[in-house]
Design goal:
Distance between the termini of chain B: 44 Å
Structural class of chain B: alpha/beta
Helix content of chain B: 40-55%
Number of domains of chain A: 1
Strand order of the largest sheet of chain A: 1-2-3
Oligomer: heterodimer
Radius of gyration of chain B: 22 Å
Shape of chain B: globular
Strand content of chain B: 5-15%
Number of strands of chain A: 3
Radius of gyration of chain A: 13 Å
Strand content of chain A: 15-25%
CATH class of the largest domain in chain B: Alpha Beta
Distance between the termini of chain A: 44 Å
CATH architecture of chain A: Alpha-Beta Complex
Strand order of the largest sheet of chain B: 2-8-7-6-5-3-4
CATH architecture of the largest domain in chain B: 3-Layer(aba) Sandwich
Chain lengths: 122, 407
Amino acid sequence: MYTEKVMDHFSNPRNVGEVKNANGIGEVGNASCGDIMRISLQVENDVIQDVKFKTFGCGAAIATSSMVTELAIGKTIDEALILTNQAVAEALDGLPPAKMHCSNLAADALHEAIKDYRNQNS
Amino acid sequence: MEKIYMDNNATTAVKPEVLEAMLPYFCEQFGNPSSVHWAGRMVGGAIEKAREQVAELLNCSAAEVIFLSCGSEGDNYAIKGTADALKDKGNHIITTSVEHPAVLETCEALEKDGFEVTYLGVDQDGMLDLAELEAAITDKTILISVMWANNETGNIFPIEDIGLIAKKHKVRFHTDAVQAAGKILVDVRKANVDMAVISGHKIGAPKGIGAMYLRRGTRISRFMHGGHQERNRRAGTHNVPGIVALGLACELAMKNMDKDYAYVRQLRDKLEKGILSSIPEVKLNGHPNADFRLPNTLNVSFNYIEGESLLLFFDMKGIAASSGSACTSGSLEPSHVMGAMGVDIVLAHSSTRFSLGAENTEAEVDFILEELPPIVQRLREMSPLYQREEPTPLSCDECRMVNKVCA
């Protein structure tokens, strides 16, 4: 049901945890639906230097969280803001249709973290 | 990698002797038992023998056994067939909120046709209040349907007591005995049951065969229209190999029940004690007294982690179990059984069921007890809910799906 890339990111998730001295934190999802994703960022000169995630959720939720951290790292916040959930799913060679709604929120969590960074630094 | 199968409440492997017994009925004794010629006559006896074997397991007479395709068909037939046959007598059905979907959705469908259904709640241990059940009976009540044992928690319901209540009020009583049959004694006569449904693939027969006990003299409307197989009670050419397999599986279940399930229970108890003692923040789902649960079933929630991720990590170690999380139930909601028991939403998503069988070994239990704690710890450390100071976001505001859990 999951692609090899999903299983790779699920079984060896990249960038798990919380960035120390994070200057942006975003969280999306809720326990009812069974997925909660939390992204923490360290941004310097508008470039994402470090990003980590913590996720409560299924295989797809963990894999998309891991993938979004890989896609975001080193990007400017403007570049990161145009990353979509769809693009994250595509980078994983796709997700099962049932997972597209509930478990594919990682880009939203990233955007929330960037918003938080901007709020803190405006 | 060694494979460990602990999902026997989902399905079981066909027993080798059962497979062997059914094989001649494909190419050699292939006849249609309804035919008068030699080919048909060759198989008639096999069906009647199987009927005896099923009757023996349920303690009824062979004439009260109807073969059909699966447990869901049996539940549909029993409930819809009763509703139609007794619609002049009343329109009220009593069932529970923890039934299998084959019962729940059948009742929901009948509600659309004007029937009224009472869904009895359960307490936090997943048990019924029989006073509430009795109080729910009205002069319009035509059917009580309560499962013999719950598939998710393994809870065993007091079917004999419910049978007495049904008898006292002269209400027909149906039980989905799919999970109980073959694991514990299912005596339909003693329990005063009018209809009981079993499924072959839960007890070592193949998928696609089931049976229903229908007490002699019980009026029921046909569900499957067509030929007059099964004394006009179930149309459709007999699934001869399946019927032969179900018969033998019932005989073996009866013969080995005490021995097998004493062994299985000891394994299950070891797994249960091991998990509860080695992993913090684990909740047992179901009756805390193991005597009130099927001897093979263990349902536990590992707080802070989601069931599907846990199953995927298990799977990488060759361990097959199941979960009540929304992701694995195929819907957007976690298990309705956990919901009915009032299990916390995060814990419901993390509910995990191990259902053992006589093929499991103590070494397998030891392996799981060794592999499980690091997997749980790893997922917890990945979870934003673990060691969290802020409150858990529970609401479904962001969720575009209409979700009962959120109501």
